[in-house]
Amino acid sequence: MVNRGENLPVHIAEHFKGGDGEVFVKDLTAGKKPANVRVCNEMVLLKNSSIGFHRHDGDSEIIYILEGEGLYRDGEQDMLVRAGDTLICCSGESHSLRNELEQPLKYLAFIVTE
User: Fold this and answer.
1) Whole-structure pTM over 0.90, yes or no?
2) pLDDT score, position 70
3) Cα–Cα distances in Å, from 111 out to 49, 57, 74, 86?
4) Whose CB has fewer CB within 10 Å in the chain, the N or C terminal residue?
5) Rounded to 5, what percent of the chain is helix, strand, coil?
6) Residue 51 · residue 15 · CB < 8 Å
7) Cβ 74 vs Cβ 95: under 8 Å
């Protein structure tokens, strides 16, 4: 199966996971995911937008930063992340991601179930 990028719809999620602003979400699978894949998205955070702090239970998330920089909270630790970084949040852990810069923060997000 091939999903052409130009055919994949983008939707806007407001206050995603309790975060600020809007998140642009493109489902890269067009809804046809393998059984243990819950999310396979390209996501974009504009300035002052964020994914709220949330916990993963029964699934894990891998994020790969494509463009920009952001502030990542991994449990209780805040750190600057940038293009080329991989972020991993395993089941039982919590995290958030915020863009405070003018340049959009673009990344791939994969959530897999246990």
Assistant:
1) yes
2) 98
3) 21, 11, 16, 13
4) N
5) 5, 60, 35
6) no
7) yes
